[in-house]
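Protein details
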Amino acid sequence: MKSPASLFLGSIILAGACSTAQEKPNIILIMADDMGWGDTGYNGNDIILTPHLDQMADDGVRFDRFYSASAVSSPTRASVLTGRNPFRTGVFTANQGILRPEEVTIPELLKEEGYETGHFGKWHLGTLTYSERDANRGKPGNTKEYNPPALHGFDVAFSTESKVPTWDPMKKRKGGGKRSGNYLLPEEEFEHYGTYYWDIDGNKITDNLEGDDSRVIMDRVLPFIDKSVENKNPFFAVVWFHTPHKPYIAGPEYHEIYKEHSLDVINYAGSITAMDKQIGRLREFLKEKGADENTMIWFCSDNGPENRTPGSTAGLRDRKRSLHEGGIRVPGVMVWPAKIKEPFVSESPAFTSDYLPTIAEVLNIDDSLITNELDGTSLLPVLSGEKNDRASYMGFSIGNQLVWMNSQQKLYSSGPELEIFDIQNDREEKNNIIDGNPDLKKEMIEALEDWQESCKKSFDGEEYGTKSVEKLNQRWRSIKIEDE
């Protein structure tokens, strides 16, 4: 049922390109890393302080059923930029595949609309160097996975290939092993973490890398925005924080805030509150520059919380790497003051593949420019209050798991395990209704198999050839649906 606020929004028109560059909305896509659905105050967490995310939820649209397109990092990030399921594009799991150069991305589309484009934070869609050892995959001579943001429409970058500590991001305790939360270790007991920040030209960045990593990232975002505003150009900023991915570490002020809790909770909660502070800093900066009204800011996480961390799913089943709700249902909020005049809660399922088609409809981008098949759908009807359900299905895939889901039903397949849930009324996935619904079971399995075949054709190069497939020597990962 639509909330009164969403019905009120039905009178707001949210579509249509604007006539001048200044009238086009600025767009910021923020993403946390391994943050659970229950890790925000607005979703009921009574320990972790997230006042600025809570304010976003109070000011704009709170998506109670927002999903990452995968249960791990790299695939979700690919979906954000392409509007496609990563199952199509060979980004099957973390640290595997690349964002193929043939994919049409949001920044490529927006550059044609006069936008300045920037990427800040975790990239995780390929390596950023082939001349030295860096992060998970960067190494001398590894050119096949070299795939920086510059190849995908970004003008500016301050990016890492993968994870870094959330405090003093360049430091690791000597002697191996994972760095503890004891940030007071003497300076000489640290060595370089092994993951670097790189700019758009492939230069290693060495200055202003101490303290809170979220602040380090935001220190690069704000000058990018400032320059765009000064140039009177619309801007597109992708801000992918590392928080609260391991190793999560909080600075002194956050240890003080959470001192009544265990060290693990102090560092986990503290790193999130530090990130939240930077989101508030961003919104305040936009106000100072007079750019807040016509800027849409989206926030989500790339997947659910890591195992054996204080991360919360608020009762949702399973965690990161699982396609049950706890692994893919994530915090999701959006503000756009110029258009969203009254806040509301959306119960319509939405996911990260919806970003591109939504942005394309906002700007009236010609369909002919989006040459690859999309899995996402525009959320403008939801944002305008015209609907609060999802007619189209969302497909998910990782490992041996498959999911096919719409507003009401969710089919979950994992080897011999085949379940259907009334997900609208059973968010914790406790009641498997498959036995009593043979027609629904048949219909959903057939649709899921058709979607898999469609994804295979995309992966094999039906839309843009086989150059990337051959370069990476990838093989299709077909997942058999068991039906015992």
User: Anything to note?
Assistant: The first strand starts at residue 26 and ends at 32.
